[in-house]
Amino acid sequence: MNESIILGIESSCDDTSAAVILGNKILSNIAASQDVHRDYGGVVPELASRAHQQNIIPVVEKAVTQANIQQKDISAIGFTRGPGLLGSLLVGTSFAKSLSMSLNVPLIEVNHLQAHILAHFIDDANTMPPKFPFLCLTVSGGHTMIVLVKDYFDMQIIGKTTDDAAGEAFDKIGKIFGLDYPAGPLVDRLAKKGDENSFKFNKPRLGNYDYSFSGIKTSVLYFIQKEVQKNPNFIKENLNNLCASVQKSIVDILMDKLEKASADLNIKEVAIAGGVSANSGLREAMKKNAEKLGWHIYIPKFEYTTDNAAMIAMVAQLKLERNEFADLSVGASARYDMEEVFKNKEE
Predict the structure, then answer these.
(1) Helix ranges (DSSP H) in 231-275
(2) What does each C-alpha distance from 219 to 181, 192, 241 come to in angstroms?
(3) Which domain range does residue 225 map to?
(4) Do residue 248 and residue 314 come from a single domain?
(5) Which residues have CB under 8 Å from 275's CB, separation 6+?
(6) Taking residues 169-198, what's their average pLDDT?
(7) What are the C-alpha distances in Å from 343 to residues 5, 72, 91, 167?
(8) How many domains are there within the chain?
(9) Under the phi-then-psi rule, with left for phi > 0, alpha for psi from -120 to 50, and beta for the rest, what region is 152?
């Protein structure tokens, strides 16, 4: 890899992040989160973009300082173009364009989901990076999909959610239990104290490698309503077991399709990426399958699972080597048409 210094900027949702990478080694990875959304039970787009405007300059300054470089040392600037919240993306995109102009360095646009997958190639993300081809279960609050990764920029979505994402299901079910937003990490923490076999919830029956999580959300809701009618303290008395059972159900749904894809395609190089890849139940299931099915598994460090600029900088580094630059007319894209980046699964 060229030993270029790249500044990465990530602002797709409610975390403002900046990172500096040298080759594929992260020199700094700074993030400012937004606690304001907890009071609303979810991310409020207008508040998110306002907070990004307040955070982006100090976050970038801290990333540059911690990396022990000066702005004049930066070779290129990578930024998240999408997908994500448009107002949030606009802040990062505008800042990146302005800084690239002032420093007279190339601008590199990055797809957020592609970055989650390619985070595995950061120097300290794993003991070693995945070998091509590999399968990557990319799972977060907004997306759940299985991607066949043939090369850095040759990826094909072979399965995706038809409704809710897994992270969204964790948060919505957590809300049913009365947990604060974001509920996913709280469900994970409480699940460690519970019995995962206490309760059973419906699993979807979809063909191919697609997912559905709306059914389990509805199943949990109806079950809780029924039990609370009989015992108003049901949730409080069974919270740990409920969290453990829900987590097992969601992880089982995720792993069933991943196992099927691995067997059908005869690929044993298997990775996970995205915010939900921090979930302890999912990580444990991956380790069990490594023993049971002979998978070579790749589980990223926690700091590279949630939205972070290190992964943006990593993709920018790979694109810099290929001279893939954006011009100043590039705009933020809330949807960032997946077919621009990934091959369509129907092809």
Answers:
(1) 234-265
(2) 21, 22, 16
(3) 129-299
(4) no
(5) 139, 140, 141, 167, 184, 305, 306, 307
(6) 96
(7) 30, 37, 29, 24
(8) 2
(9) alpha
Tokens representing residue 97 in the block = 């364009």
Is residue 104 located within the same domain as residue 188?
A: no
How far is residue 95's CA from residue 102's CA, in Å, rounded to a whole number?
A: 11
Nearest to 109 by CA among 326, 332, 317, 329: 326
Alpha helices of 134-233 — where are they, by DSSP H? Answer: 166-176, 184-191, 214-230
**CB-CB contact of 245 with 193 (8 Å):** no
The C-alpha atoms of residue 159 and residue 139 are separated, in whole angstroms, by: 12
DSSP per position, 63-130: HHHHTT--GGG--EEEEEEESS-HHHHHHHHHHHHHHHHHHT--EEEEEHHHHHHHGGGSTTTSSSPP
* pLDDT one-digit tens code per residue, 264-296: 999 999 999 999 999 999 999 999 999 999 999
Tell me: do 27 and 47 sit in the same domain. yes
**Domain assignment of residue 89, yes or no:** yes
Note if the bond before 45 is cis, omega within 30 degrees. no
Q: Give a yes or no: residue 347 inside a domain.
A: no
Q: Which two tokens stand for residue 56?
A: 């982006």
345 occurs within a structural domain? no
Residue 347 has pLDDT above 60, yes or no: no
Q: Are residues 234 and 262 in the same domain?
A: yes
Q: Which of 109, 116, 169 is CA-nearest to residue 147? A: 116
* C-beta separation of 194 from 60 below 8 A: no
The terminus-to-terminus CA distance of the chain in angstroms comes to: 32
Residue-wise pLDDT tens digits, 311-339: 999 999 999 999 999 999 999 999 886 66
The tokens describing 32, both together, are 């400012």
CATH label of the domain that carries residue 107: 3.30.420.40
Q: Which residue has the tokens 């490594």?
A: 290
Q: State the average pLDDT over residues 142-165.
A: 95
Q: Are residues 65 and 181 in the same domain?
A: no
Whether 19 shows a pLDDT value over 80: the answer reads yes
173 and 266 within one domain: yes
